[in-house]
DNA sequence: GACGTAACAGCCGTTACATCA
DNA sequence: ATTGATGTAACGGCTGTTACG
């Protein structure tokens, strides 16, 4: 299954920081990347050379593949064992060889960064991306066994799978943040509007000489009550104020009195698509009916 | 039991590269 | 052909967790 680019991550809320009223700060300070230290060929150089020789640069090195195939989780004869060793999770192939060194290895590799500081970036194929995406839908984190199996399946290095999942989680989080920001922005707009309306109402009440009979026919003023626990606002239209919650009400009970507005989760929406945000928000934050 | 340490996984911020308009 | 914007693979650094001595 191929995932169209637009289908995949195509959600764009078009939310600028100014629009959202958010103060988003960017750290523009240059990072202090350590200078390359090794004289040998880097991964990227190796891949460049391999690519120039017509070799699939995305394919994991043969030695690594052999180890991974030995350790393949999908293999019924898998000899991988996961040992919880002193809180340090170690994963061994059959011969007792430690096989999950890919993280350390890959980090070590970076120390062998080439002299010109360049690194080749490998574009994952659509098929690879689709399979990773499917896997992510099932589980947004991988254990080493799954990681190895997936890497074998996709002809990638385990580190590449790990990085992909890491970046994918980051993208999910970013999308959720955008949704939250949009949600809060709309909350703010509604509250501003409500505040304006209430101020107008106060002004009218002050300026009017109200006769009691006329007053009796008025709709009751909106009563706002703040939860002393979490400071959420509850709206009541009753003329009689709501009974104050007990001073030591448990937080869970308190929240029944002050229900949290529904926040649209990215994860709950098929694919990426938190497109339903606006309608769900409007339902969740609809102004109290006055009647 | 408290503490220091090692190994690990995940997150964050960033960089570098590929692609496209 | 060039360029700026965008997406994303990959990295280093940091932090939290876990178990051991």
From TrEMBL:
<dbReference type="InterPro" id="IPR006712">
    <property type="entry name" value="HD-ZIP_N"/>
</dbReference>
<dbReference type="InterPro" id="IPR017970">
    <property type="entry name" value="Homeobox_CS"/>
</dbReference>
<keyword id="KW-0539">Nucleus</keyword>
<feature type="DNA-binding region" description="Homeobox">
    <location>
        <begin position="117"/>
        <end position="176"/>
    </location>
</feature>
<keyword id="KW-0238">DNA-binding</keyword>
<dbReference type="Pfam" id="PF02183">
    <property type="entry name" value="HALZ"/>
</dbReference>
<keyword id="KW-0175">Coiled coil</keyword>
<comment type="similarity">
    <text>Belongs to the HD-ZIP homeobox family. Class II subfamily.</text>
</comment>
<keyword id="KW-0371">Homeobox</keyword>
<dbReference type="Pfam" id="PF04618">
    <property type="entry name" value="HD-ZIP_N"/>
</dbReference>
<dbReference type="InterPro" id="IPR050762">
    <property type="entry name" value="HD-ZIP_Homeobox_LZ_Class_II"/>
</dbReference>
<feature type="region of interest" description="Disordered">
    <location>
        <begin position="102"/>
        <end position="122"/>
    </location>
</feature>
<dbReference type="GO" id="GO:0005634">
    <property type="term" value="C:nucleus"/>
</dbReference>
<dbReference type="InterPro" id="IPR003106">
    <property type="entry name" value="Leu_zip_homeo"/>
</dbReference>
<dbReference type="GO" id="GO:0000981">
    <property type="term" value="F:DNA-binding transcription factor activity, RNA polymerase II-specific"/>
</dbReference>
<feature type="region of interest" description="Disordered">
    <location>
        <begin position="68"/>
        <end position="87"/>
    </location>
</feature>
<keyword id="KW-0804">Transcription</keyword>
<keyword id="KW-0805">Transcription regulation</keyword>
<feature type="compositionally biased region" description="Polar residues">
    <location>
        <begin position="74"/>
        <end position="84"/>
    </location>
</feature>
<dbReference type="InterPro" id="IPR009057">
    <property type="entry name" value="Homeodomain-like_sf"/>
</dbReference>
<dbReference type="Pfam" id="PF00046">
    <property type="entry name" value="Homeodomain"/>
</dbReference>
<protein>
    <submittedName>
        <fullName>Homeobox-leucine zipper protein HAT4</fullName>
    </submittedName>
</protein>
<dbReference type="GO" id="GO:0043565">
    <property type="term" value="F:sequence-specific DNA binding"/>
</dbReference>
<feature type="domain" description="Homeobox">
    <location>
        <begin position="115"/>
        <end position="175"/>
    </location>
</feature>
<feature type="coiled-coil region">
    <location>
        <begin position="181"/>
        <end position="211"/>
    </location>
</feature>
<dbReference type="InterPro" id="IPR001356">
    <property type="entry name" value="HD"/>
</dbReference>
């Amino acid at each position: 299954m191929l995932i169209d680019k637009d289908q995949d991550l195509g959600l764009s809320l078009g939310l600028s920081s100014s629009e959202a009223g958010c103060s988003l700060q960017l750290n523009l300070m240059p990072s202090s990347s350590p200078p390359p230290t090794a004289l040998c060929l880097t991964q990227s150089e190796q891949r460049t050379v391999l690519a120039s020789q017509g070799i699939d640069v995305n394919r994991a090195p043969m030695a690594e593949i052999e180890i991974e195939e030995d350790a393949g989780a999908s293999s019924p004869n898998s000899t991988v064992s996961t040992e919880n060793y002193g809180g340090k999770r170690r994963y061994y192939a059959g011969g007792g060889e430690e096989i999950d060194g890919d993280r350390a290895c890959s980090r070590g590799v970076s120390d062998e960064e080439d002299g010109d500081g360049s690194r080749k970036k490998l574009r994952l194929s659509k098929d690879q991306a689709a399979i990773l995406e499917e896997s992510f839908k099932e589980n947004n984190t991988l254990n080493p066994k799954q990681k190895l199996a997936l890497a074998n399946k996709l002809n990638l290095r385990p580190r590449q799978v790990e990085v992909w999942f890491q970046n994918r989680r980051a993208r999910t989080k970013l999308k959720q943040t955008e949704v939250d920001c949009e949600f809060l922005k709309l909350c703010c707009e509604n509250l501003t509007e409500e505040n304006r309306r209430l101020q107008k109402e106060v002004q009218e009440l002050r300026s009017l000489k109200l006769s009691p009979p006329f007053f009796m026919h008025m709709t009751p003023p909106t009563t706002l009550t703040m939860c002393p626990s979490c400071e959420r606002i509850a709206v009541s239209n009753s003329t009689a104020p709501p009974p104050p919650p007990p001073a030591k009400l448990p937080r869970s009970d308190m929240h029944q009195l002050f229900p949290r507005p529904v926040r649209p989760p990215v994860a709950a929406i098929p694919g990426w698509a938190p497109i339903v945000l606006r309608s769900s928000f409007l339902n969740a934050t609809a102004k109290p009916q006055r009647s």
